[in-house]
Amino acid sequence: MVQNKTDKTLKLIRLSEVIRKTGFGKTWIYKLISAGKFPKQIKIGERAVAFIESEVDEWIYKAITASRNTSN
Question: Beta strand pairing status for 48-52 and 12-13?
Answer without folding.
Answer: antiparallel
